[in-house]
Amino acid sequence: GRKAIMAGATVPGWKPFDAMVDAHCGVPVRVPARFSPAKIAKQVYVPSTKSGKLIGVEGDDFDRLKTYDSSIMLVKVGDQVKRARDLMSFCAYVWLIGSKEDVEADAKKARDEFIVDVEEQEPDSP
Q1: What is the average pLDDT value for the chain, to the nearest integer?
Q2: 45 near 87, Cβ under 8 Å?
Q3: What are phi and psi of 45, to 5 degrees?
Q4: Which of 19, 86, 99, 107 is the most exposed place for a label (fewest CB within 10 A)?
Q5: Which of 38, 43, 34 shows the shortest CA–CA distance to 8?
Q6: What is residue 10's predicted lDDT score, i.e. its pLDDT?
Q7: Residue 124 has what pLDDT?
Q8: How many Å apart are CA 77 and CA 118, to the nearest integer?
Q9: How far separated are the first and last CA of the chain, in Å rounded?
Q10: In whole angstroms, what is the distance from residue 108 CA to residue 101 CA?
Q11: How confident is the model at residue 126 (pLDDT cuts 50, 70, 90)?
């Protein structure tokens, strides 16, 4: 899904969904003569740096980023959040498409400017 959409946005004239259907039907895949990415795509994992009850978020207006394509917030105010340690503990995902330099700069901004305000809780005792 998302990766095919992003791949299509990076290679002019290529339709990855058509290519997948053709391949499944035994039709030879048609690749543009100049099959070369004009842009790069990146999925950015946006972490929480704290654990506790989420009471506020700053920097979740990802559409401010120059290379913004789409995003999803995985938590909302009132949810329990954990300090990100694995894929399931991230607060948001952002998809970026553009030049390598711009995408890298926006990925850094997305992570650095995302700030969670949590009501920290005492750790559970064993």
Answers
A1: 87
A2: yes
A3: -95, 120
A4: 86
A5: 38
A6: 86
A7: 53
A8: 9
A9: 43
A10: 11
A11: low
